[in-house]
Amino acid sequence: MASRNEAKQQKEKTSQALIESALELCAEQGYASLSLRSVARKAGIAPTSFYRHFREIDEMGVAMVEQAKEALDGWLAQARKQMAFSGLKPGDGSQKQLTAIECLTRPFVKTFADAYRQTPRLLHLFFQERTGSADALRAAIGDAISALIQDLVEILKRPGKGLPCSTQTLGLLSETMITLVSRGVMERFSPSGTPQETLRAAANLIEPVIQPLTLLLLGALTLEQTKQEQE
User: Fold this and answer.
1) pLDDT of residue 67
2) Which of 128, 116, 123 minimizes the C-alpha distance to 201?
3) What are 14-67's pLDDT values in tens digits?
4) Does the domain spanning 1-55 belong to CATH 1.20.1410.10?
5) According to the CATH classification, is domain 61-230 in 1.10.10.10?
6) Residue ranges per structural domain of the chain
7) 14-28, 77-91, 117-131, 153-167 — which is least confidently predicted?
8) What is the separation of C-alpha 117 from the centre of its chain, rounded to a whole number of angstroms?
9) Rounded-to-integer distance, Cα 60 and Cα 76, Å
10) Cβ contacts of residue 57 below 8 Å, gap of 6+?
11) Which of 81, 108, 133, 211 is deepest in the core (most CB within 10 A)?
């Protein structure tokens, strides 16, 4: 007879199989097309067994959002280690400013592309359903993105390593940065591509994502410096 721990592990394994099957179907047809029967069939279990793991499709969807949030937390943890804005002196030219800002934007985009490459279907679902029709998913994703924005604000305002802007400006920048990087990467990488295909794409296509982010931060920095000069 299986022990309680073994039964728990088997239940978790089946729950994850359902999630993986749902993600595969989402990549082919979209989240709105999911049904309990289609997910169970894909996972190789009886439809009635689905209820042993989730009460409904949206409860499983929220579980997928939670997994995506864990992956995105890992992304920002990696980005934090690599992002650092080097100080600028008055009179430094635009080239020095661009170089300094790219010390923030380049690792920000690269680490996101790395995270997306590891779990493309999961992160694609997360950002795609941000404006989807499922209320439960939109709410869960909204809460997760709010937390990510706050974490990014903390990264950008680190003394000696962050962007010298007000907290309010950093909040607006953080929200825009997350939107731009997710949209830019998703437009270029297919969630159904193989890891090898995604890796090859990442090597060539992150530059067009870095450019608008760099211009965004350059504009914010210039505006902040102008305000300080006027005070």
Assistant:
1) 97
2) 116
3) 999 999 999 999 988 899 999 999 999 999 999 999 999 999 999 999 999 999
4) no
5) no
6) 1-55, 61-230
7) 77-91
8) 11
9) 25
10) 22, 34, 35, 36, 39
11) 108
